[in-house]
Q: What sequence folds into this?
């Protein structure tokens, strides 16, 4: 059984009557504990793919299985619960809540899951340290640099110790050293906990942390085993 | 930290964004509440205490206030929701359940809504006390008593509750239905550009190139804006029409009084009541320095349906020249046709009179029916109405009239009609005469209502009071409508604040100066605020001229008044846009978002 499996996904956008086909009969598999990089030119549909795999958006047709369960077989409430427990998301544009502080943003998934105060505190400290943003805990989101926001987004994705992480260019705004540190941490997490990861990146150095690289081209994927 | 704490924090942080929602709810319910304190006041709606001509004036504005309440609460809720859309999108993407999101949104919306309702009760209570004081002081409706308006609280809360629940349910349906991806994108989504835009672009590429920014700003969310522009143009147009109505209404109802009261004072002697000679009247009036200049007496007969007059008396005493052959009658309609009301001018073709025929022999039934045919009709006000007269009047040939006289199936009376030297100063004299009549009739004040004299001065004062009251209410209504139109536009602009902030940032980044950005915003706001106004001017010009001309014969006057009002609005709005654009520029300026 795969941690994540997609079968012949189709997805298109319709703008002003014109249809843009982004995903065309795309299938992929991610094994448990695998770290997979997705590469592809800009506009090739990487973000779209992540959204459709993670249940943020619905494909036009095709199926997505997570741990053997098909996403569309869940009710919406079940899906919300499932995603909260099992998925960690890093968005390309971060999607942080400006009305909350850094710490609160990171804790949001745990808060939604009604985890205990003690647990929250512990996890938060760990995450702040991992993302190297201990001193930013009380800051507002609007007071952060792009790279800092990115690190907050990563910390938020990891805070629940999910089974599956979807990261859209998690190191796009970071300098080489910081990026390497964070990817190193993610790799360590992967080794320790066996979390599967799907990382969109343009950076071949970042991709080299992964066990497998998928190339997104013409709406489908090509496997590049390292 | 629990979800509740987080929600509260976001709520507090966002409070400033909700102030328009709060304000919209607050204003709509305060205004409705003020009207509710009046129409739920039993003494006001009691015809015995307050003339129904006055109290009926409250109905229309109250309905309007209710409609505005019902439209505005959901409208402002939508703005409130759009401010939170992305936040909820993020939380949904982190695995919050839709149910929880709905609960959160509803809880916030309702909490704020209830807060606004409470505030409006406090403000409305004070406000209504002032309202009452104004009504009694300025307009002189002194019978009205202010008291704690319990019914108004419940009526307002009920209506407001309906609006709020509707809004909450509607918003929840939207949250439930929208995809997370779209919620995340919400603040970035501008509508697609329409066909007109592409057409203009093709036909005037030069113009488009020069004003690309301005035009793209205008066509952003064009569907929503079109709807809003038309709707607020209708509201403002209605205000302008009301202004023109106000400008002719007062003079129109006073003119009506003059039309319907050809005599300054009139009463009828009938059923043995009002048995007062003109000399006695003169004596009473003389005490109050009121002099009679002209006296007319006309005898008449009546039954349940008609007054009957003889043609020779009408011709001689009321200055007419009717010719009515024996066996016929004339339908007299005492209406002013051009006063704006519709009248039923259907002639009665024939009537059966119970006439004692002198030529008949003894022993036969004393009453036989004689049938009279109509010989036509006339529309003319010959004498004042009063309570002892029937509603309709027929004029008969003298011979037929004389036959009625000796018949006990009809009542007889004498109408006394007077002109006074100066009717405008006759109030005290008339009042004294009314109580003189009551004493003479030996009836209770309630019964005396059926025998009261009809005095021009009383009708005049009543009409003036009613007119002033209507005017007073209409002013409130106008203010209300203007506010509604204003908020309709302001709400939308505020909802676009985030977009504008990003826009300004990009413009700043590409080197657009502050002055240039200001001009851009000014242009946008001018179009937003002034286009409904311009539209409404056209709309009201036509309507108020037509209505004014048809109904009150003062279309030009009405037009002038509404155009003056429109110009004042235009200037005020133009000034406001200058002020507001400056403010918007500052509020959405780049760098400002780090200050929060
Ligand atoms: N909401 C939308 N409506 C219409 N087309 C869209 C929409 N979102 C994305 N697209 C189109 O779909 C295609 C794939 O977009 P996507 O964001 O998935 O690309 P990407 O691979 O993530 O690119 P990048 O590396 O630049 O982030 C692009 O051509 C884009 O123009
Ligand atoms: Mg992308």
A:
């Amino acid at each position: 059984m795969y941690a994540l499996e997609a079968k012949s996904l189709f997805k298109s956008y319709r703008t002003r009557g014109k249809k843009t086909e982004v995903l065309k009969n795309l299938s992929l598999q991610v094994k448990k504990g695998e770290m997979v990089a997705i590469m592809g030119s800009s506009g090739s549909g990487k973000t779209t793919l992540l959204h459709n795999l993670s249940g943020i958006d619905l494909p036009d047709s095709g199926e997505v299985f997570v741990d053997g369960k098909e996403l569309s077989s869940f009710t919406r409430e079940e899906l919300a619960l499932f995603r909260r427990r099992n998925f960690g998301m890093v968005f390309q544009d971060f999607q942080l809540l400006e009305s909350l502080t850094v710490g609160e943003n990171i804790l949001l998934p745990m808060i939604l899951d009604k985890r205990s105060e003690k647990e929250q505190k512990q996890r938060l400290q760990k995450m702040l340290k991992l993302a190297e943003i201990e001193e930013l805990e009380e800051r507002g989101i609007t007071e952060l640099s792009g790279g800092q926001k990115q690190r907050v987004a990563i910390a938020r994705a990891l805070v629940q110790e999910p089974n599956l992480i979807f990261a859209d260019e998690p190191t796009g705004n970071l300098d080489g050293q910081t990026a390497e540190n964070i990817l190193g941490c993610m790799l360590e997490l992967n080794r320790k906990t066996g979390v599967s990861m799907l990382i969109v990146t343009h950076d071949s150095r970042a991709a080299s942390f992964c066990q497998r690289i998928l190339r997104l081209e013409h709406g489908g994927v090509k496997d590049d085993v390292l | 930290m629990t979800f509740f704490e987080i929600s509260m924090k976001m709520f507090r942080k966002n409070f400033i964004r909700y102030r328009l929602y709060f304000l919209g709810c607050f204003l709509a319910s305060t205004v409705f509440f003020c009207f509710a304190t009046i129409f739920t006041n039993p003494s006001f709606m009691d015809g015995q205490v307050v003339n129904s001509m006055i109290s009926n004036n409250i109905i229309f504005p109250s309905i309007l206030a209710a409609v505005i309440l019902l439209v505005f609460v959901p409208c402002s809720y939508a703005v409130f929701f759009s401010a939170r859309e992305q936040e909820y999108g993020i939380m949904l993407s982190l695995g919050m359940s839709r149910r929880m999101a709905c609960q959160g949104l509803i809880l916030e919306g309702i909490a704020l809504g209830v807060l606004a309702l409470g505030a409006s009760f406090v403000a409305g209570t004070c406000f209504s006390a002032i309202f009452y004081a104004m009504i009694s002081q300025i307009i002189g409706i002194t019978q009205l008593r202010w008291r704690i308006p319990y019914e108004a609280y419940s009526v307002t809360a009920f209506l407001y509750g309906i609006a709020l629940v509707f809004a909450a349910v509607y918003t929840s349906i939207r949250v439930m239905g929208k995809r997370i991806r779209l919620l995340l994108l919400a603040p970035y989504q501008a509508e697609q550009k329409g066909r007109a835009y592409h057409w203009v672009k093709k036909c005037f590429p030069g113009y488009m190139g020069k004003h690309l920014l301005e035009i793209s700003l205008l066509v952003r969310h064009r569907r929503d804006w079109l709807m809003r522009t038309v709707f607020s143009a209708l509201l403002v147009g209605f205000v302008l029409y009301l202004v023109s109505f106000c400008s002719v209404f007062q003079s129109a109802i006073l003119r009506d009084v003059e039309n319907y009261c050809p005599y300054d004072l009139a009463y009828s002697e009938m059923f043995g009541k009002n048995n007062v000679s003109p000399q006695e009247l003169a004596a009473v009036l003389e005490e109050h320095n009121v002099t009679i200049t002209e006296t007319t007496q006309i005898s008449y007969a009546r039954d349940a349906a008609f007054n009957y007059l003889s043609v020779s008396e009408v011709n001689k005493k009321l200055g007419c020249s009717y010719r009515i052959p024996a066996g016929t009658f004339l339908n007299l309609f005492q209406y002013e046709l051009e006063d704006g009301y519709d009248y039923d001018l259907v002639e009665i073709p024939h009537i059966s009179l119970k006439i004692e025929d002198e030529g008949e022999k003894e022993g036969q039934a004393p009453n036989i029916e004689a049938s009279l045919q109509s010989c036509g009709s006339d529309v003319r006000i010959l004498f004042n109405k009063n309570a002892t007269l029937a509603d309709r009047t027929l004029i008969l040939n003298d011979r037929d009239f004389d036959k009625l006289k000796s018949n006990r199936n009809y009542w007889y009376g004498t109408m006394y009609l007077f002109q006074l030297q100066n009717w405008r100063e006759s109030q005290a004299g008339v009042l004294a005469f009314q109580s003189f009549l009551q004493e003479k009739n030996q009836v209770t004040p309630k019964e005396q209502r059926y025998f009261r004299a009809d005095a021009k001065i009383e009708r005049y004062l009543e009409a003036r009071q009613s007119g002033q009251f209507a005017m007073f209410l209409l002013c409130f209504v106008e203010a209300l409508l203007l506010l509604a139109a204003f908020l309709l536009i302001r709400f939308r602009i505020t909802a676009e604040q985030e977009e504008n902030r990003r826009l300004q940032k990009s413009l700043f980044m590409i080197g657009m100066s502050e002055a240039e950005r200001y001009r851009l915003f000014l242009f946008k706001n001018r179009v937003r605020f002034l286009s409904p106004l311009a539209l409404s001017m056209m709309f009201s010009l036509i309507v108020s001229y037509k209505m004014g001309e048809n109904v009150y014969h003062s279309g030009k006057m009405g037009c002038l008044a509404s155009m003056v009002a429109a110009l004042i609005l235009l200037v005020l709005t133009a000034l406001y846009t200058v002020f507001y654009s400056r403010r918007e520029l500052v509020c959405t300026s780049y760098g400002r978002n780090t200050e929060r």
Summary: Chain A touches chain B at residues 15-16, 51, 56-58, 76-77, 80-85, 87, 89, 91, 95-100, 104, 107-109, 111-114, 117, 120, 140, 142-143, 156 (CB under 8 Å). The longest strand of chain A covers residues 18-30. The mean pLDDT of chain A is 88. The pocket of magnesium ion (ligand 2) is lined by residues A 46-47, 92, 168 (CB under 6 Å).
